[in-house]
Automatic annotation (TrEMBL):
<protein>
    <submittedName>
        <fullName>PadR family transcriptional regulator</fullName>
    </submittedName>
</protein>
<feature type="coiled-coil region">
    <location>
        <begin position="126"/>
        <end position="167"/>
    </location>
</feature>
<dbReference type="InterPro" id="IPR052509">
    <property type="entry name" value="Metal_resp_DNA-bind_regulator"/>
</dbReference>
<dbReference type="InterPro" id="IPR005149">
    <property type="entry name" value="Tscrpt_reg_PadR_N"/>
</dbReference>
<dbReference type="InterPro" id="IPR036388">
    <property type="entry name" value="WH-like_DNA-bd_sf"/>
</dbReference>
<feature type="compositionally biased region" description="Polar residues">
    <location>
        <begin position="195"/>
        <end position="204"/>
    </location>
</feature>
<keyword id="KW-0175">Coiled coil</keyword>
<feature type="region of interest" description="Disordered">
    <location>
        <begin position="183"/>
        <end position="226"/>
    </location>
</feature>
<dbReference type="Pfam" id="PF03551">
    <property type="entry name" value="PadR"/>
</dbReference>
<dbReference type="InterPro" id="IPR036390">
    <property type="entry name" value="WH_DNA-bd_sf"/>
</dbReference>
<feature type="domain" description="Transcription regulator PadR N-terminal">
    <location>
        <begin position="12"/>
        <end position="95"/>
    </location>
</feature>
């Protein structure tokens, strides 16, 4: 399995843990909630869904909304296929959530992992955040060393681009420091409008996360499975 497909499978399982969805809903959620999936097609999503079904982690159910019942016979199209997480799928997703290896610190995988921190226990969140910070600190050290070696050979625009890249990494490190401090302090997690604390369903505690700010993270819709 490629790293990219592994991230997609993780995200699909996580979204379906929240509620069953059909393919169009899943693609919309992946596009809007997880920036790493802003540009991907049904040609990528449906093979992933079929793999998850074959593994026993999802089941397919025919959509049964009143709208489906009325329009499907008229259009000659099948009712929407709804995907539901199985007990085995939930167990597999929870196993994936508990993993804190090096892949969890990489750019795309970290973004997907962070999106599901609300379903992740605090000790795992801490390990992932600290691992990500260490990875970025290593990257920053290499960038600074490279800039020091090549500064005299770079034109002003290339030099400015490298500085911009370093500043982006430095901002994320500062953001991670705030997140780690909040996790250690056990601060309540509040939404952007200052709503009530959100309960951590996996650890029984509330996690305090500052706003991330600027830190990371052409098909025609077809509601039927192929």
């Amino acid at each position: 399995m490629s790293r990219r497909s592994g991230i997609l499978e993780f995200a699909v399982l996580g979204l379906l843990r929240e509620s069953p969805m059909h393919g169009y809903e899943l693609r919309k959620r992946l596009n809007t909630s997880l920036g790493v999936f802003r540009a991907f097609s049904y040609g990528t999503l449906y093979p992933c869904l079929k793999t998850l079904v074959a593994n026993g982690w999802l089941i397919e159910e025919a959509g049964n909304s009143p709208e489906d019942a009325l329009t499907a016979p008229l259009t000659g199209r099948r009712a929407k296929i709804v995907y539901r997480l199985t007990a085995e799928g939930k167990e597999h997703f929870e196993e994936l959530l508990s993993q804190t290896g090096p892949d969890a610190y990489e750019d795309e995988h970290f973004a997907a992992r962070f999106a599901f921190f609300g379903q992740t226990s605090r000790d795992v969140r801490m390990r992932v955040l600290e691992g990500r910070r260490s990875r970025l600190e290593e990257r920053l050290e290499k960038m600074r060393a490279s800039l020091a070696r090549t500064r005299e050979r770079l034109d002003d625009y290339t030099l400015e681009l490298q500085r911009h890249g370093m500043e982006s990494v430095e901002r994320e490190v500062r953001w991670l420091n705030e997140l780690i401090e909040s996790e250690r302090a056990g601060r309540d997690l509040r939404g952007p409008t200052g709503g009530s604390a959100q309960q951590d369903t996996t650890s029984g505690a509330t996690g305090g996360l500052p706003r991330p700010g600027d830190a990371p993270g052409t098909d025609t819709p077809d509601d039927t499975a192929t």
